[in-house]
Amino acid sequence: MILYPSVDKLLKKDNSRYSLVMLASKRAHELDDGASELLPKYNSVKNVGKALEEIEAGKVILDGE
């Protein structure tokens, strides 16, 4: 279950849950492979949570936005 950031806040960034899942998955894989973190502090320990926090902060966006 995702507690932070909330799904409602994430859906304000993109209406499609599918797009959010794909973006978070891609970013989490990048973090797994050693990509640098984009935020100074995270609430989540896991890379999927970190990816969602980056999306919510507007640091990671879908191509074409």
Automatic annotation (TrEMBL):
Top-level EC class as recorded in UniProt: transferase
Keyword Transcription attributed: yes
E.C. number: 2.7.7.6
Pfam family, one: RNA_pol_Rpb6
Stored Gene3D superfamilies: 3.90.940.10
Top-level taxon of the source organism: Bacteria
GO terms under cellular component: DNA-directed RNA polymerase complex
Keywords: DNA-directed RNA polymerase, Nucleotidyltransferase, Transcription, Transferase
GO MF annotation list: DNA binding; DNA-directed RNA polymerase activity
Entry keyword Transcription: yes
Alphabetical list of SUPFAM superfamilies matching this protein: RPB6/omega subunit-like
Catalytic activity from the UniProt record: RNA(n) + a ribonucleoside 5'-triphosphate = RNA(n+1) + diphosphate
Classification via NCBIfam families: rpoZ
Subunit and partners: The RNAP catalytic core consists of 2 alpha, 1 beta, 1 beta' and 1 omega subunit. When a sigma factor is associated with the core the holoenzyme is formed, which can initiate transcription.
PANTHER family tied to this protein: DNA-DIRECTED RNA POLYMERASE SUBUNIT OMEGA
Family label: Belongs to the RNA polymerase subunit omega family.
Functional summary from the UniProt entry: Promotes RNA polymerase assembly. Latches the N- and C-terminal regions of the beta' subunit thereby facilitating its interaction with the beta and alpha subunits.
The name this protein goes by in its record: DNA-directed RNA polymerase subunit omega
Source organism of the structure: Candidatus Gallilactobacillus intestinavium
Origin organism lineage: Bacteria, Bacillati, Bacillota, Bacilli, Lactobacillales
